[in-house]
Write a structure and sequence with these properties.
The chain has 93 residues and is an alpha+beta fold. The chain has 2 helices and 5 strands; from the N terminus they run βαβαβββ. The chain has a single domain, classed as Ubiquitin-like (UB roll), CATH 3.10.20.30. The protein has a 5-stranded mixed sheet with strand order 2-1-5-3-4.
Length: 93
């Protein structure tokens, strides 16, 4: 299993801090995102990804505290028992 942890507006939107999704040996970050989306009833992926499936600027996704931008982005390998943290782009002024 992979633990997916939600932060900021996604946590408020989903009204949950985290969930567990099943893991498969070939899973990449994008697989885990879609599994998490299927596990909840409220759409949230549009907050992280654009219409082409690329990360919105400012989105932060961590695997065990390592930013996927410094790994292989959405193709980063996810292993059993990993923690994937999702931070939507911030807004403010």
């Amino acid at each position: 299993m992979v633990k997916v942890q939600f932060y900021s507006l996604i946590r408020l939107l989903l009204k949950t801090e985290s969930l567990l999704v099943p893991w498969a040996p070939d899973d990449r970050v994008h697989h885990i995102l879609h599994k998490a989306q299927k596990a909840v009833s409220t759409p949230f992926l549009h907050k992280l990804l654009d219409e082409q499936g690329a990360l919105h600027p400012g989105t932060i996704i961590l695997i065990n505290r390592h930013n996927i931008l410094h790994l292989d982005k959405l193709q980063s390998v996810v292993r059993d028992d990993d923690l994937v943290a999702l931070f939507p782009p911030g807004a403010g002024g």
